[in-house]
Structure formats: structure tokens, C-alpha cells
Amino acid sequence: NLKDARSWMDITESALNDMTEIFQRAKELAVASDGGAESEEDLKATAKEIRQLRTQLINLGNSTYAGRHIFSGYKTDKPLLNDDGTFAFEVDNAVENIKYEIGTGDDININVPGGDLFNNGNSIAAGDVGTAGKFVQDLTDLVNALESADHGAVIGTVSELTQDLDTLLRVRADVGARVNRLELTANRMQNDNTNFTKLMSENENVDMTDTIMNLKNEENVYRASLAGGARIIMPSLIDFLR
After folding, report:
1. Which class does domain 2-195 fall in?
2. How much helix, strand and coil, in percent to the nearest 5, is found in the chain?
3. pTM reported for the whole predicted model
4. Interstrand relation of 68-69 and 99-103 (parallel, antiparallel or unpaired)
């Protein structure tokens, strides 16, 4: 399970890193567009880039490992998001934690609940399907503000994008801590295996030549003892018979 858990979490870390870059870029564009010097055409061009970032974000939300959707809770056979960024199923079901046993009585949570992640940690009512979480909605709001050349609305998205970045940094720190725990467990198991192999080698890989020589020496000593005992006993018996 250690290898599978590490692979799952590596994919998760990569997706979270890419999401962070998306929001960093979106925030940079929002701040750069707030000066008021950009033309409507410039703002619309920026909006097109934000749309591409939003599409990339949705694709990352549907990331898979070995055919399983990593942000969909127990519903690993289903993508978390529709093509338009809305949740594809009741996101309350995506808060389920997937645990792997990595040692005797030692479990670790390997997944990140996508419903919680994409809604910035805010709760979502069961059955709330067809709506977008905060991550997607914030990028949509930025697109709308840019396309309408509403500078006030553009700058208003900056604080929301900052919150999204804070959420991603928090989640990435948590995942990183779990990855470190996996590495420590793997190292401990490797050390245990090395020590066990060494012990088995010391106990079982005995030099056969030395063993045979020792046995022969013990046999010779034993035979000599028997011979000496016979020499002592025989005269005593003869003397007794006489």
C-alpha cells in the first residue's frame, strides 16, 4: 500500500501545485488590469486567458490516478466537475476520506475532498448539484468583470483569489506533511527489513566447512573419550572375574 499511497499523493501534490500557479497568474492579471489604462480590447484579451485558466482548473479537478478520480471521495469512478465547472454529483459525498493501511494499526488518509477544496472549505448542502464551487466561480467572476470592463469588479476579485491561494497553500501543507509521514514509514520499514535480513544471514548463512570441521573434532573427542573409558573398565572386569 505504501507505493500506491505515495503515487496517489504525488498526483495530488502535482495537481495542487498547478492549481496554485493558475490562481497566482489570475491574481497577477487582475492586479495588472486594475490600473484603468487598459482598453476594452486588452481586457477582453485578458478575459480569454482567464477562461483558459478556468478550463485548466476544471481539468485538474478531474485528475485521475490509475483511472480513479482523486478529488471525488469514494466516487472515484466519477469526475468531480462537469465541463462548465459545476459539481457533477452531490458534493457532500466527496468529503469521504480514503484511508490506506501502511503498517499494523497505522492508517493514513491519502485523498483531498474535492467538494471541500473547490469551495474553499465552506460547507455545501447535500443535493446542491449544478452549481460551481468558489474556485471556479471566482475565475468566472473575473472573466465577467474583464469582459464588461468593470474595473471595480476586477479589483474586487483580487481578495477572493487571495483567499483561494491561501486555501491551496493550507491544503498543500497538509498533503506535504502526509507525504513526509509516508517517507518516514517507508524508511523505517526498509531499515527493519535490512536488520531482519542481516539477522537471518548471521543465523543461517553459517560456513559449512567450519561447521563440518567442528563436528569432526567433537566426534574425535567423543571417540577418544569412549576409548579411554573402555581401557579403564576392561581391566577392572577381568580382575573381578578372576
Report:
1. mainly alpha
2. 70, 5, 25
3. 0.75
4. unpaired
